[in-house]
Amino acid sequence: MSVIEIVGGKQLNGEVNIQGSKNAVLPILAATVLVNGITKLNHCPKILDVFHMIKILESIGCAVVWEGSTIIVDSTKLSTSTIPEDLVKKMRSSIIMMGAMLGRMGSVVITFPGGCTIGARPIDYHLSAFKKMNISIEEKDGLIYCSTTCINGTDIYLKFPSVGATENIILAAVLANGKTRIYNAAREPEIKELCNFLNASGADIAGVGTDNLEINGVSSLHHVIYTVESDRIVAGTYLAAVAGTGGKATMNGVDCNSQQSVIQVLEDMGCNIKCGMNSITIESSGKLKPVSVIRTMPYPGFPTDMQSQMMSVLMKSSGVSRIIEDIFEGRYQNVREQLKFGANIEILGREAIVEGVSRLHGSEVYASELRGGAALVIAGLMAEGKTVLHNPVYIERGYEDICRDLSCLGADINYIS
Ligand code: UD1
To answer: Is 256 a catalytic residue?
Structure first.
């Protein structure tokens, strides 16, 4: 079994190029099905979730090739609208294939994705929106059968700005009959990217970047070449690592605007942040102040995908911090592993009280999900002595090569297979 070995206590310095965004490329790959032709996507990350999404595309008849970090998808000939169960079970976000397949084929059969370690993750918003769009939905033996003779544009209000539901509705609406309006749409930068990609392919989406999207159905999309933005969560993870260890490092290819909530917290802790044209530089003494409260929220609030990493950084701050996890109730399962470093964390429902300690010690820990795993890497870098992290496969779902990137900044971190 593979492990990541870390010898902690080193400051991080230098610069690192940030990989393409996982949460942007996954819905865009699903959207290539709507193009009915060839799509070229530059700056794609080589991560497990992307490999899984490519397997899904191939399973329904797409031809997919890599050229460096470019993915070329030919979706001209689709052979089935059934997504294989084993692939859906491997990656929950495969449910964004629903909207794309409905838009292209008028039908899709997909497994119920179920829960995962970070929380229940229901899809009721997706399904009720589809029903409003004249799509019939039948659930039988764990499978969801969706079909329609014609998707009708309509007004949809989301009770909560769900990222996946917003994406699924956009994908179903792009080739629909008439206008779809989404009220209280998610505003994450990855939604904006999906809209930009679709508009570049000939879609008609207005209100891009706002919580009020208006999608006018068009008859077809065309061939496009698109470059995926850098991953704001990977950049945020490395910023957190430098904050925790101390040092000075630059993340290249990053849009500062999408990082404002994370930057604010890092500055509150005492880090010095400088935004460049397309980069962020952080300088940290490694001696950090606590923060009064971090509450996870939909964008532009503090991202739930950065909560665990920030908790690791706060484990060595000079006082008591509060974290409130309002998006995914299961994220605190990772705290059991973070405590092994000698941290002092108390969980009270959705709230975590983190009392900083003066020293963390290396430990043997087990990753059980993507961002929680990255948080354990950060704790290992901040700790004295050796850390052995098991199950690095969870981290590979979203980080191209976390050992390469952090070694580049001077960390003593190795992937042992
Ligand atoms: C996406 C991101 C994930 C990120 C999350 C929140 C991708 C591939 N994944 O996940 O990294 O952590 O956004 O920023 O982009 N909910 C319902 N019913 C629904 C849909 C969602 O109750 O039908 C709830 C969820 O349980 C959760 C909240 O809404 O509490 C947010 O979920 P959502 O925004 O849908 O997250 P994902 O799209 O799954």
So the answer is: no
